[in-house]
Design brief:
By secondary structure, this protein is α/β, with parallel strands linked by helices. Helix content is 30%, strand content 24%.
Length: 162
């Protein structure tokens, strides 16, 4: 499957912070952000937790913006932006993944996640749940515009629906 183009809508900073807090990141984690947009999740993860953060973005213009934002933030040693289709990039190195895509794309990613991710990998999805999977935690973050639910999943047979 080829990654569909998802409308670019950057998550508010307080939502990003809550999503990263839910992952309980440690320095040895490797975070992947699928559809990383302007790189804000990667930059915040590198700055707050010192983790290696890898973003995958299909749009050339956003890749350029994300790389420049990481450079300006001084986190280039920790942040890498890959221009490509996340359906075609191996995610097996990830210990944590962030998503702000759509329920349809999340549903399409389930097979890839089950094939490539280790049992201890954590995922957070902003606003859109992963259909038929049971989150281990759901938080709601208020912003002036709307309420953002954030879903935390762990790659564990107790969480993954049939």
């Amino acid at each position: 499957m080829r990654a569909p183009i998802v409308h670019y809508s950057p998550a508010p900073k307080n939502v990003v912070r809550a999503a990263l807090d839910m992952l309980k990141l440690k320095k040895n984690d490797i975070l992947f952000d699928l559809g990383c947009g302007d790189g804000r999740i990667l930059i915040m993860a590198a700055k707050l937790y010192g983790v290696r953060a890898i973003g995958i973005e299909i749009r050339r213009a956003l890749v350029k913006i994300a790389r420049e934002n990481a450079r300006k933030a001084g986190v280039l040693p920790l942040v890498e932006i890959i221009r490509g289709d996340f359906f075609r990039i191996d995610l097996s190195a990830a210990t944590a993944i962030t998503l702000y895509l759509s329920s349809t794309v999340n549903n399409a990613l389930k097979v890839k996640f089950m094939r490539e991710l280790r049992p201890e990998t954590r995922l957070v999805s902003i606003f859109f749940p992963i259909p038929s999977w049971t989150p281990v935690e759901v938080r709601h973050v208020r912003t002036p515009i709307k309420d953002f639910p954030i879903y935390l999943y762990k790659m564990d047979q107790n969480v993954i629906g049939k």
